[in-house]
Amino acid sequence: MRNEPTFGVLKRKTLASVTGAEVDSDRIEFMTTRGRKFVLYHSQGCCEHVRLAEVIGDVNDLIGTPILYAAEVSSEGHPAPEHPDSYTWTFYRLTTIKGSVTLRWLGESNGYYSESVSFVEIS
């Protein structure tokens, strides 16, 4: 069963692991110390490409200490990727006392397909 919370639900949670946080990934899994699993992902379709474009910070800083800040911000502004008709940047920022990590996703399409990233809890 999937529940669709907002990304901010990670605030005050302590992560045991983060997997898939690599450039060009289309799925990142967050496992809490209490066994809850959250996933950022995009189900690729015909005429779009959504992927993790950049990881800013050290993902290991998110492990073993409570998340103090968790936010999602989307933008259709600069910088523009190379060739798309339409694009959306989505930034996910997580902060602990150890440091901050920004996960920068890029969605590109011909303008008729989804460029968004989904965030769900897997139970």
Distance N to C terminus: 6 Å
Structural class determined from secondary elements: mainly beta
User: How many H/I helices?
Assistant: 0
**Tally of discrete structural domains:** 1
Mean pLDDT: 88
The largest sheet is: 5 strands, antiparallel
What keyword list fits this structure?
single chain, 123 residues, mainly beta, 5-stranded antiparallel beta sheet, 4-stranded antiparallel beta sheet, 0% helix, globular
How would you sum up this structure, described in words?
The protein is built from no helices and 9 strands. It is an all-beta fold and 123 residues long. The chain has one domain (2-122). The strands form 2 sheets. Strands 1-9-4-3-2 form a 5-stranded antiparallel sheet, with no helix packed on it. It is globular, with a radius of gyration of 14 Å. The mean pLDDT is 88.
